[in-house]
Write a structure and sequence with these properties.
It is globular, with a radius of gyration of 21 Å. A hairpin with a 2-residue loop joins β2 and β3. Helix content is 22%, strand content 35%. The chain is built from 5 helices and 9 strands. It has one domain: Pnp Oxidase, Chain A, CATH 2.30.110. By secondary structure, the protein is α+β, with helices and mostly antiparallel strands. It comes from Tenacibaculum adriaticum.
Length: 219
Protein backbone atom coordinates (compact mmCIF):
# COMPACT_ATOMS: atom_id res chain seq x y z
CA UNK A 1 0.00 0.00 0.00
CA UNK A 2 1.49 3.32 -1.12
CA UNK A 3 0.65 6.41 0.89
CA UNK A 4 1.31 10.09 0.45
CA UNK A 5 3.72 11.32 3.08
CA UNK A 6 1.93 13.47 5.65
CA UNK A 7 3.08 17.08 5.81
CA UNK A 8 1.68 20.42 6.90
CA UNK A 9 -0.03 20.85 3.53
CA UNK A 10 -2.00 17.61 3.25
CA UNK A 11 -2.34 16.50 6.87
CA UNK A 12 -5.98 16.30 8.02
CA UNK A 13 -6.27 17.93 11.44
CA UNK A 14 -9.99 18.11 12.19
CA UNK A 15 -11.50 14.64 12.12
CA UNK A 16 -8.10 13.02 11.67
CA UNK A 17 -9.66 9.60 12.34
CA UNK A 18 -11.41 9.91 8.97
CA UNK A 19 -8.25 10.75 7.05
CA UNK A 20 -6.93 8.53 4.25
CA UNK A 21 -3.53 8.93 2.60
CA UNK A 22 -3.52 5.72 0.57
CA UNK A 23 -2.95 6.54 -3.12
CA UNK A 24 -5.15 3.75 -4.47
CA UNK A 25 -8.06 4.76 -2.24
CA UNK A 26 -7.69 8.42 -3.28
CA UNK A 27 -7.61 7.43 -6.96
CA UNK A 28 -10.85 5.50 -6.44
CA UNK A 29 -12.49 8.71 -5.21
CA UNK A 30 -11.11 10.64 -8.19
CA UNK A 31 -12.28 8.03 -10.68
CA UNK A 32 -15.82 7.97 -9.25
CA UNK A 33 -16.61 11.30 -10.93
CA UNK A 34 -15.48 13.89 -13.42
CA UNK A 35 -16.14 17.23 -11.66
CA UNK A 36 -13.63 18.89 -9.38
CA UNK A 37 -13.17 22.24 -7.65
CA UNK A 38 -10.04 24.20 -8.53
CA UNK A 39 -8.69 26.99 -6.35
CA UNK A 40 -6.79 30.04 -7.59
CA UNK A 41 -6.04 33.67 -6.78
CA UNK A 42 -7.29 36.36 -9.16
CA UNK A 43 -6.58 40.04 -8.53
CA UNK A 44 -5.98 39.24 -4.86
CA UNK A 45 -9.23 37.30 -4.42
CA UNK A 46 -9.31 33.57 -3.62
CA UNK A 47 -11.75 31.85 -5.99
CA UNK A 48 -12.89 28.25 -6.39
CA UNK A 49 -14.77 27.01 -9.46
CA UNK A 50 -16.00 23.62 -10.71
CA UNK A 51 -14.27 22.05 -13.70
CA UNK A 52 -14.48 18.81 -15.65
CA UNK A 53 -11.36 16.67 -15.39
CA UNK A 54 -9.78 13.38 -16.35
CA UNK A 55 -7.13 11.43 -14.46
CA UNK A 56 -4.26 9.37 -15.81
CA UNK A 57 -1.79 7.94 -13.30
CA UNK A 58 -0.69 10.86 -11.09
CA UNK A 59 -1.94 13.52 -13.53
CA UNK A 60 -5.19 15.49 -13.56
CA UNK A 61 -6.11 17.22 -16.83
CA UNK A 62 -8.20 20.39 -17.13
CA UNK A 63 -9.23 22.33 -20.20
CA UNK A 64 -10.87 25.61 -21.17
CA UNK A 65 -10.70 28.65 -23.40
CA UNK A 66 -7.37 30.36 -24.04
CA UNK A 67 -8.94 33.35 -22.23
CA UNK A 68 -9.91 31.30 -19.15
CA UNK A 69 -8.62 33.38 -16.23
CA UNK A 70 -8.50 30.41 -13.85
CA UNK A 71 -6.31 28.31 -16.14
CA UNK A 72 -4.10 31.30 -16.91
CA UNK A 73 -3.77 32.06 -13.18
CA UNK A 74 -2.75 28.55 -12.15
CA UNK A 75 -0.31 28.34 -15.06
CA UNK A 76 1.26 31.60 -13.91
CA UNK A 77 1.44 30.34 -10.32
CA UNK A 78 2.56 26.90 -11.54
CA UNK A 79 0.60 25.27 -8.71
CA UNK A 80 -2.89 24.85 -7.32
CA UNK A 81 -5.09 22.63 -5.18
CA UNK A 82 -8.00 20.53 -6.44
CA UNK A 83 -10.86 18.98 -4.46
CA UNK A 84 -13.27 16.20 -5.46
CA UNK A 85 -16.23 15.34 -3.23
CA UNK A 86 -19.09 12.83 -3.40
CA UNK A 87 -22.16 13.11 -1.15
CA UNK A 88 -23.39 9.68 -0.01
CA UNK A 89 -26.00 10.34 2.69
CA UNK A 90 -27.66 12.92 4.91
CA UNK A 91 -27.11 12.08 8.58
CA UNK A 92 -30.09 13.31 10.59
CA UNK A 93 -29.51 13.27 14.33
CA UNK A 94 -31.71 14.02 17.34
CA UNK A 95 -30.18 17.47 17.68
CA UNK A 96 -29.20 20.04 15.10
CA UNK A 97 -25.61 20.11 16.28
CA UNK A 98 -25.04 16.45 15.40
CA UNK A 99 -26.49 16.55 11.89
CA UNK A 100 -23.86 15.60 9.34
CA UNK A 101 -23.34 13.98 5.96
CA UNK A 102 -21.60 10.86 4.76
CA UNK A 103 -19.12 11.69 2.02
CA UNK A 104 -15.90 10.85 0.23
CA UNK A 105 -13.56 13.73 -0.52
CA UNK A 106 -10.01 14.09 -1.79
CA UNK A 107 -7.83 17.19 -1.84
CA UNK A 108 -4.83 17.31 -4.15
CA UNK A 109 -1.79 19.58 -4.20
CA UNK A 110 0.66 19.85 -7.06
CA UNK A 111 2.18 21.80 -9.90
CA UNK A 112 0.77 22.74 -13.30
CA UNK A 113 2.05 23.05 -16.82
CA UNK A 114 0.54 23.80 -20.20
CA UNK A 115 0.21 20.98 -22.71
CA UNK A 116 1.47 22.34 -26.03
CA UNK A 117 1.63 19.35 -28.38
CA UNK A 118 -1.56 19.22 -30.49
CA UNK A 119 -1.68 15.42 -30.61
CA UNK A 120 -1.33 15.21 -26.84
CA UNK A 121 -3.98 17.90 -26.36
CA UNK A 122 -6.42 16.06 -28.61
CA UNK A 123 -5.83 12.77 -26.78
CA UNK A 124 -6.47 14.46 -23.42
CA UNK A 125 -9.67 16.10 -24.65
CA UNK A 126 -10.81 12.70 -25.86
CA UNK A 127 -10.14 11.27 -22.40
CA UNK A 128 -12.09 14.08 -20.70
CA UNK A 129 -15.14 13.47 -22.91
CA UNK A 130 -14.93 9.69 -22.43
CA UNK A 131 -14.59 10.16 -18.66
CA UNK A 132 -18.07 11.71 -18.74
CA UNK A 133 -19.59 9.06 -21.03
CA UNK A 134 -17.42 6.10 -22.07
CA UNK A 135 -16.85 5.63 -25.82
CA UNK A 136 -18.55 8.91 -26.69
CA UNK A 137 -15.63 10.65 -28.44
CA UNK A 138 -15.56 8.17 -31.31
CA UNK A 139 -19.16 9.07 -32.22
CA UNK A 140 -18.37 12.80 -32.66
CA UNK A 141 -17.14 14.75 -35.67
CA UNK A 142 -13.36 15.35 -35.73
CA UNK A 143 -12.16 18.45 -33.93
CA UNK A 144 -11.30 21.46 -36.06
CA UNK A 145 -7.79 22.86 -35.74
CA UNK A 146 -9.23 26.28 -34.83
CA UNK A 147 -11.07 24.64 -31.91
CA UNK A 148 -7.86 23.04 -30.71
CA UNK A 149 -6.03 26.35 -31.06
CA UNK A 150 -8.63 28.09 -28.87
CA UNK A 151 -8.32 25.50 -26.11
CA UNK A 152 -5.86 25.39 -23.21
CA UNK A 153 -5.10 22.00 -21.70
CA UNK A 154 -3.41 22.00 -18.29
CA UNK A 155 -1.56 19.05 -16.80
CA UNK A 156 -1.66 18.98 -13.00
CA UNK A 157 0.77 16.58 -11.33
CA UNK A 158 -0.34 15.31 -7.92
CA UNK A 159 2.55 15.82 -5.54
CA UNK A 160 0.68 15.15 -2.31
CA UNK A 161 -2.92 14.52 -1.33
CA UNK A 162 -5.26 13.33 1.37
CA UNK A 163 -8.81 12.06 1.56
CA UNK A 164 -11.45 12.39 4.23
CA UNK A 165 -14.30 9.92 4.46
CA UNK A 166 -17.36 9.64 6.68
CA UNK A 167 -19.35 6.43 6.35
CA UNK A 168 -21.28 5.87 9.56
CA UNK A 169 -24.57 6.46 11.30
CA UNK A 170 -25.81 9.01 13.78
CA UNK A 171 -23.56 10.09 16.66
CA UNK A 172 -25.82 11.66 19.27
CA UNK A 173 -25.28 12.67 22.88
CA UNK A 174 -25.92 9.68 25.16
CA UNK A 175 -28.88 11.31 26.88
CA UNK A 176 -30.51 12.12 23.53
CA UNK A 177 -31.02 8.45 22.68
CA UNK A 178 -33.91 8.48 25.16
CA UNK A 179 -35.76 11.21 23.25
CA UNK A 180 -38.82 10.32 21.09
CA UNK A 181 -37.20 11.83 17.97
CA UNK A 182 -36.54 10.04 14.68
CA UNK A 183 -32.90 9.86 13.62
CA UNK A 184 -31.17 8.06 10.77
CA UNK A 185 -29.72 8.30 7.28
CA UNK A 186 -31.13 9.42 3.96
CA UNK A 187 -28.86 7.82 1.32
CA UNK A 188 -28.07 10.08 -1.62
CA UNK A 189 -27.35 8.78 -5.11
CA UNK A 190 -26.87 10.56 -8.43
CA UNK A 191 -28.77 8.78 -11.20
CA UNK A 192 -29.26 9.18 -14.93
CA UNK A 193 -32.73 9.70 -16.38
CA UNK A 194 -33.71 8.53 -19.89
CA UNK A 195 -31.78 10.35 -22.66
CA UNK A 196 -33.61 13.23 -24.37
CA UNK A 197 -32.80 13.61 -28.06
CA UNK A 198 -32.11 17.08 -29.46
CA UNK A 199 -35.11 18.40 -31.36
CA UNK A 200 -32.90 19.34 -34.32
CA UNK A 201 -31.67 15.80 -35.02
CA UNK A 202 -31.80 14.61 -38.62
CA UNK A 203 -34.56 12.13 -39.37
CA UNK A 204 -33.65 8.56 -38.57
CA UNK A 205 -30.94 9.33 -36.00
CA UNK A 206 -31.36 6.92 -33.09
CA UNK A 207 -29.87 7.14 -29.62
CA UNK A 208 -26.41 5.47 -29.83
CA UNK A 209 -25.92 2.21 -27.99
CA UNK A 210 -23.15 3.60 -25.78
CA UNK A 211 -25.56 6.31 -24.56
CA UNK A 212 -28.19 3.67 -23.78
CA UNK A 213 -25.52 1.61 -22.02
CA UNK A 214 -24.61 4.62 -19.88
CA UNK A 215 -28.23 5.19 -18.96
CA UNK A 216 -28.80 1.52 -18.10
CA UNK A 217 -25.75 1.42 -15.82
CA UNK A 218 -26.54 4.71 -14.05
CA UNK A 219 -30.35 4.77 -13.78
Amino acid sequence: MQEFEKNKLNRVKRGANRAVYDKEHINTILDAGFLCYVGYIYDGYPITIPMAYARKDDKIYLHGSTANRMLLSILEAEKTSITVMHLDALVLARSGLHHSVNYRSATLFGHCKKVVDDNEKAAILEQIVDTMVPNHWQSLRPMYQKELDRTIVVEFTIETASAKIRNEGVNDELEDYELPIWAGLIPIKQVALPPISDDKLLDGIEIPQHILNYYQSHK
